[in-house]
Each structure stands twice: as structure tokens, then as C-alpha cells.
């Protein structure tokens, strides 16, 4: 059951800004905006925000096209011009501000620069940095990590690796790895960036 809540757009914006990716910010913002009561007094806001949400989701989930980009821009511009209240105009301003980063276009080209959108990234283990402690395997709730913990009485170990098909990109493994052996790479990126 969804409870109707009257959120101020500035508050929604503040929470949206906690995300790193500008497309995620906009999607979060619009989703929260639509979860509140909608007065529906003017067309660009009442209908545009629904369409914007669909288009933004396409972009975040890696299905985005130039048509989605243009649609979001057109909706925001129409809202900026045709909204009857400040709430609608502010919403348009925020969306255009996030679009102005140029990151939306990068998503269409297959990259999320802040490595936040799951569709564009992969988690990988750098074998040279892995000490085979097994902490990542223990913490992964999805059975996505293969490998055998290094024990002093054993010889011949299985290197740790992440099964991409099982990984949901939750990030739990990164937070427990003691040697920063797990990195996030862009699917399109050839070289792996290792944080030293
Ligand atoms: S812009 Fe304001 S008046 Fe128009 S539909 Fe949105 S919230 Fe209602
Ligand atoms: S990101 Fe999450 S699902 Fe993927 S391997 Fe790490 S802990 Fe498992
Ligand atoms: S937590 Fe890090 S060091 Fe330990 S097994 Fe996993 S990748 Fe290797």
C-alpha cells in the first residue's frame, strides 16, 4: 500500500543529489515526484513526467536511444515553459541541469562514468591483488563468487572470480575485500583501473 506523502521538490532534489549518476538522480527525482499527489492541472507536467520516467529508465537500464534523450529534453523544456506552478518549473530546471552534464549522452553510447548504473558495469577480481581470504565469497548472497580459500595446510588453490551471470552488482564484496582486489569496470572499458 502506498501512502500519499507531500514531499517538497527541494527535499526530493536533495535526496536525488546523493546519487552519483545524473541520470539516476533524475530517475529517482521523477519517481519520487510521481509518488506524491499529482494535481494534473497542466498537460506538460501531468503527462510529461510519466513519459520522462519511462525514458529515463530506458537510459539507466542500457536501452536508451537518441529518441529517449530528445524526449526527456523536450518534456523538460515544455514543462519549463508550460507548467502553471513553481513545482513543475523547478522539476524541469532540475532535469535540464542534470542533462547539462553530458552524461546522458554517454549512457546512450554505453558508459556510466560514475559506474553506478548496473547495465554498464562489471565487478572483477584482480588476481594479482587477491590473497584468497574468501571474505567476498562469504558475503555474496547470490553465490556469484567462485574460489577456494587459501589454507596453510593445502596446496593448489582455485583463483577467485566473479560469475557475471549471477552478479547483481550489489557491491557487498568490494566493501569486505581487504586488498582492494575487486574493481568495477565499464563493460566497454578494455583496461582495468586499479585503485592503489
Ligand atoms: S506544474 Fe504544477 S500545476 Fe501543473 S500539473 Fe504540475 S504540479 Fe500541477
Ligand atoms: S557485487 Fe554483489 S552479487 Fe556481485 S559478486 Fe559482489 S557481492 Fe556478489
Ligand atoms: S575478499 Fe578480496 S582478497 Fe579476499 S578472496 Fe575476495 S577478492 Fe580475494
3D architecture notes:
With 196 residues, this protein is mainly alpha-helical. It has 2 domains: 100 residues, de novo design (two linked rop proteins); 66 residues, Alpha-Beta Plaits, CATH 3.30.70. 44% of the residues lie in helices and 7% in strands. It is built from 8 helices and 4 strands, in the order H-H-H-H-H-H-E-H-E-E-H-E. Helix 1 packs antiparallel against helix 2, helix 2 packs across helix 3 and helix 4 packs antiparallel against helix 5. The N and C termini lie far apart (47 Å). The structure holds iron/sulfur cluster (SF4) (3 copies). The site of one iron/sulfur cluster (SF4) has 14 residues, from helix 7.
Helix content: 40-55%
Provide the domain count.
Answer: 2
Helix/strand-derived class? mainly alpha
Rg of Cα set: 21 Å
The strand count comes to 4
The largest sheet, given as strand count, sense and whether it forms a barrel, is: 2 strands, antiparallel
Mean pLDDT: 89
Q: Which second-level CATH architecture of the largest domain applies?
A: Up-down Bundle
Strand order of the biggest β-sheet: 1-4
Fold-level CATH name of the largest domain: de novo design (two linked rop proteins)
Which geometry do the CA atoms define?
elongated
Q: Superfamily at the CATH H level of the largest domain?
A: NADH-ubiquinone oxidoreductase 51kDa subunit, iron-sulphur binding domain
Low-pLDDT stretches: none
Estimate the strand proportion. 5-15%
Question: Which CATH top level class of the largest domain fits?
Answer: Mainly Alpha
- Which ions, cofactors or small ligands are bound in this entry? iron/sulfur cluster
Gap between N and C termini: 47 Å
Number of helices: 8
Q: Give the SSE string.
A: HHHHHHEHEEHE
Amino acid at each position: 500500500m502506498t501512502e500519499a506523502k507531500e514531499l517538497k521538490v527541494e527535499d526530493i532534489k536533495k535526496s536525488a543529489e546523493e546519487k552519483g549518476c545524473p541520470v539516476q538522480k533524475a530517475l529517482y527525482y521523477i519517481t519520487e515526484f510521481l509518488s506524491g499527489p499529482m494535481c494534473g492541472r497542466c498537460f506538460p507536467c501531468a503527462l510529461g513526467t510519466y513519459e520522462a520516467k519511462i525514458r529515463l529508465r530506458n537510459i539507466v537500464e542500457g536501452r536508451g536511444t537518441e529518441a529517449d534523450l530528445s524526449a526527456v529534453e523536450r518534456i523538460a523544456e515544455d514543462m519549463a515553459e508550460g507548467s502553471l506552478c513553481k513545482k513543475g518549473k523547478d522539476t524541469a530546471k532540475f532535469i535540464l541541469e542534470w542533462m547539462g552534464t553530458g552524461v546522458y549522452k554517454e549512457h546512450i553510447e554505453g558508459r556510466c562514468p560514475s559506474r553506478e548504473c548496473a547495465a554498464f558495469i562489471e565487478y572483477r577480481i584482480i588476481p594479482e591483488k587477491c590473497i584468497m581470504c574468501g571474505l567476498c565469497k562469504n558475503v555474496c548472497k547470490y553465490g556469484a563468487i567462485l574460489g577456494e580459500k587459501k589454507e596453510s595446510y593445502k596446496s593448489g588453490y582455485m583463483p577467485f572470480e566473479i560469475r557475471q551471470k549471477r552478479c547483481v552488482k550489489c557491491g557487498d564484496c568490494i566493501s569486505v575485500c581487504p586488498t582492494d582486489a575487486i574493481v568495477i569496470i565499464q563493460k566497454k572499458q578494455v583496461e582495468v583501473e586499479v585503485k592503489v
